[in-house]
Amino acid sequence: MRRTISVLVENEAGVLSRIANLFSARGYNIDSLSVAETLDASVSCMTIVTHGNDQIIEQITKQLHKLINVIKVTDLTEGDHIEREMVLIKVTTEPATRAEALRVADIFRAKVVDVTPKSFTVEVTGGDKKIDGIIALLRPLGIKEIVRTGRIAIGRGN
Question: How many CB atoms are closer than 10 A to CB 158?
Fold first, then answer.
């Protein structure tokens, strides 16, 4: 089962390395990782997407709590939360497919961020299904390159 874990950490050198080492030493995989400062510049928020049964996730959270620079660990999957990801997709366009590719981008509310005579790049923000959907529709038209940010998440309410 896929799980999204939010980890507040002290914003210091080596913290990311220690967390990555914790996962690799125990044979756990990080499917997605996003890190940035919070409103407090001395604290960063890591959004880690991993997978495993309840026992594995419990073990991961206990091990994260033991790390000295970790302030708070929250399994967002268990509560009400919002998840988003951003993707940049570079589409090769021929005159015959350009209009169709732009129509697909418009349907998914994608923003065209770069245009050249032979390609254009769109930016899409949303959940997994939205991003996977636009990729599936653009692939037959000629995707040249894809770059994904990884998932970010925040709990809803207080």
Answer: 3
Is residue 52 within 8 A of residue 3, CB to CB? The reply is: yes
- 3 band by pLDDT with thresholds 50, 70 and 90: very high
Q: Which of 147, 146, 86, 141 has the alpha carbon at shortest distance from 118?
A: 141
| pTM score of the predicted model | 0.82
**CB-CB neighbours of 113 under 10 Å:** 11
Number of helical H runs and strand E runs in the chain: 4, 9
Helix (H, G, I), strand (E, B) or coil at 93: coil
- 3-state SS class at 32: strand
88 exposure class (CB count in 10 Å sphere: 0-12, 13-18, 19+) = middle
Quickly tell me which residue has 């604290």 as its tokens: 43
For residue 33, the Cα-to-chain-centroid distance in whole angstroms is: 7
